[in-house]
Structure formats: structure tokens, C-alpha cells
């Protein structure tokens, strides 16, 4: 009979961060946002940290060639998949006006897609692809390199002169019907004068080239929240221009931009108004995980560990059977205490009710590690009656999860609100406006404005007329259960008890 320790050593839930998960494809859950994306109904995937934006992109990028709906579609990443985000170099050039950022994004997309087309297709003189080759050379954007960095560097170097014709080999003539290119016979002073090439005409030529080869291109952009880290003044105009570029490109049948963006970042970008925002929202979907999807995700990861499932005896079970075999019925005993799954759901949720898959995977992974330490001290054999991961290990995992999320999510994303968050450290979990005014040292009539960013961050959740710090962040901030002085508790479910 195998021991619990031997079984747990065979359990690998993978990484909670999609960038580092080598087994993601084996247990990826095709939720509705993913299906809407590949069906072409949605172009903008928005979600909180850890909700799976990057996972959706990675699966799309790996599988698109085998997805029937995308038979003639190529997914082209316009960002570097690892390492420092290339767009930081754009921010380091200083703040540009929104129209210049718009020109940058269009030149970049023209270059990424155009160079890919020329690299992967043969073409004849006088063809549209040949015209595209000449155009990119004249704009000093031609590159044979495979990868986005070289193309990006070329476009950034041309900021201020984007779409200026510079070719010393050909003269360009822009007509109603398109472009004509004439070899230059003589070079004189006049040849140093740039000709401004209409941006839309360039993109129209690119669209025609794609039609000629029978392909559509999805230009994918992810990691946008990292791209302007430390450059908040550049972030908003640059990303507003990206959204404007997305709208401008809709007239082209064969070029589509697919954006994977943090929900809070999207809100900041459109704050204060954005023309045609309703049109953007119609093509945007927010990632929200319901509890059934989360259980499917967890159990699918468990089922990938065949040796573990065989040791435990759950290899033929459904999701509920697997969960019941691995975890206790309750973490805290009592008729009014929640079942373990409900306990988990209330612990991984932030103040806005968002339950990122990352929190669930980390909670169970931390519990596995804690249980292994317990098994080292007091080994158990698997007898079919006892749970594999015990209640104490889940409690220890919650403490570790809370400390981790306070550090890598709450404080990391808070920026200027960190001093405000620190005022909650070692306080009580439940407040009203009066207690918050005392805690934050502000007048009561200004409390709502003061805590609005904290609600947005998920540090505070509204419960009736009160506000509560979710259990997710309590241990990490050393916050104790209960209400602050002068606060009348609101009635709610017992699964909030610790």
C-alpha cells in the first residue's frame, strides 16, 4: 500500500503562471471567452491578474493552425513572449502626442505583418508583394529577421519620420489607384526631401497582399500592463492610441488586432471618455470564472497525474469524486461551517468577488507542500477513508497565499495607494464610513472618494453599508476578524468565519 507522501510526490499541478507552465495545453479549459475569440466575435480579452489572459493567448498561438474556424488565419505575436517587454523602449523615448503614437502602432503593425508576409512567400516583380517590399524599404522598415525586436527597433528609430519616403533607389508616386515606383536615375539635392506616404494607403496595400496570398492575420498584443511600467505619463496616451488603431484597422478585411489587457488598465485608458467606446465594448469580453469552471480546471490538473490518481484510487471518478477523495469534507468542523469547496472559494476571492484561477492553483499547491511536511513527520498509508490533504494543511496554505498575494498583487499593483493600504495593517476586517475616516485620518464626507481605489483593487468589498477586507488579504496584512469600534456587524454567511 503506497503512503500519502509517495502519492503527493506524484502530484504536480503545474505553474499558476501561464508563461511558466509547460503543461498548460493538457489541462486548458475552453471557456466561453476562448470560444468567442476563435469564432471572431471578440477581439479584446480583459481580465484581472491571474484570470488567464496569457493562457488564452498561448493556447490560441499554439493551436490556431488546427482550429477549423482559423483555417486561413495566421496568429502573429507583436510582442516578445518572454524577457523585458519591448515596448518599454518606446516609453523611454519620452511622451509623444496621441497622433504620433497612432502612427507608431500603424507603422509597427505594417512592419510586423509586412515583413512576415515577405519572409514566408515568394513573389514576382510588379506583384503587390513586390510593391510592399519596395514600400517597406523606402520607409526604412524592411527586415528579414525572424522576431519582433528588430522590427520594433526600426519603427522606434523612425519616430518623428514615420511614413516618410526615404528610398534612394525608387521614387514613389501616390495615385488614386495606388502606388507607382520609378527607379531613380539621378541623385540630387531634391532626392533628400521626404515624401509623406498616406498611412491608410500603406495598410490598404498590406491588406491587398494578404488577400492575394489567401491569408488573414491576427496581430496579438499581450503583456501591455508591463510595457509602460514606471512611465505612467506615456502609458495612457500610448494605449489610447492603440485602441484607436484597433478601430481604424477594422476597415481592412484581412488584418485584425487582438488585445489581451488587464481590466484595471483598460478602465484607466478609457477613463474620461473615449470616442466609439461602445463599439470597443461590443468586441471586448471580461474573464470571469464561475465555480464549476474552477473545479473543472483543478480536477483536470489533478487527473493529468496518472500515478497519483492510481495511488489515491480516483482515476475513474468525476470532478466531485476526485475532490472528495483528495480533500476533507470541511476545513472547520460544525453544522454551520461551509464545505471545503465553499471554504476555498471564499478564500481565493478578492473584495470584488473575483476568483482568479491562479489563487486556487497556488492555494492547493501550498497545501500539498504543507501536507508533505506533515507526512515527513508522521507518515500515513492510504487507506481509502482519510483525505490526502488535511484541513490543517489548507489553513497553512491560506496564510501563505495571503502573504504572497498581498506582496505580488495588492501592493505591487497599488502604486500610489500603498501608504493607504498599509494603514489597514493590524486593524480589524469590518468597517463603516466612520471607522474608515478614523483609520485613514480623513473627514467622513471624503471617505468614499478616498477608498474608491481600494475597492477597485479588491482590498475592500461592500457588504450592506459596511466594508470588509476579504479573507484573501487578512493574514498578509495581519488583519484580525471582527468589526472596528463603533461598527454594527451585518448579517452574512458563516463561511466568512475563520
Summarize the structure in words.
The chain is an alpha/beta fold. It has three domains: 1-17 and 290-414, no CATH class; 32-286, no CATH class; 416-492, Winged helix-like DNA-binding domain superfamily/Winged helix DNA-binding domain (Arc Repressor Mutant, subunit A), CATH 1.10.10.10. Helices cover 48% and strands 11% of the residues. It contains 23 helices and 13 strands. The chain has a five-stranded parallel β-sheet with strand order 2-7-8-1-9, with helices on both faces. Strands 11-12-10-13 form a four-stranded mixed β-sheet, covered by helices on one side. A two-stranded antiparallel sheet has the order 3-6. Helix 6 packs across helix 11, helix 7 runs antiparallel to helix 9 (199-213) and helix 14 crosses helix 16. It is globular. Mean pLDDT is 91; it is low at 185-193.
**What spatial order of strands do you see in the largest sheet?**
2-7-8-1-9
Q: Give the overall average pLDDT.
A: 91
**In terms of per-residue confidence, which ranges show pLDDT below 50 for 5 or more consecutive residues?**
185-193
Which sheet architecture does the biggest sheet show?
5 strands, parallel
Q: How many helices does DSSP assign?
A: 23
Number of strands: 13
How much strand content do the residues show?
A: 5-15%
Question: How many domain units?
Answer: 3
**Rg, Å, rounded:** 27 Å
The rough form would be described as: globular
Q: What is the structural class?
A: alpha/beta
State the end-to-end distance: 36 Å
**Percent in helix:** 40-55%
